[in-house]
Amino acid sequence: MEYTDDMIDRIEKMDQAVYKMCLAFLQLNDTDDLEVKFPWNNDIIEEIYDAAVQTLRKYQYKVCDPYIKQTGGSGQYCNIKTCGIRECKLHP
User: Are residues 20 and 48 in contact, defined by beta-carbon separation less than 8 angstroms?
Assistant: First the structure.
């Protein structure tokens, strides 16, 4: 089981949004030397991403956070019970 292109696009869009938010908090912009001042760090992005999803859900907002849950030897796509969105077009 693999992520669909739409799932990957959604995750990448959200990762970029988190990174841009970090730049705003750090008072950095695209003209700064970001490779030195704030290089991309998956651990930081993931931690903030997860905290944002958890906080929004805590306040009853519906968040599309695509994932594949691996159990044993099989996988299962995320479902609308988790995100609360009425219809998912990211995966079968």
Answer: no
Reduced to 3 states (helix: H, G, I; strand: E, B; else coil), residue 71 is strand
Which residues on neighbouring strands pair with residue 70, listed in sequence order? 75
- The verdict on pTM exceeding 0.90 is no
Predicted confidence pLDDT, tens digits, the chain (92 residues): 899 999 999 999 999 999 999 999 999 998 899 999 999 999 999 999 999 999 999 999 999 999 998 888 888 898 888 788 888 888 87
**Alpha-carbon gap, residue 63 to 29, rounded angstroms:** 27
Report whether 45 contacts 19 (CB < 8 A). yes
Tokens 């669909």 sit at which residue?
4
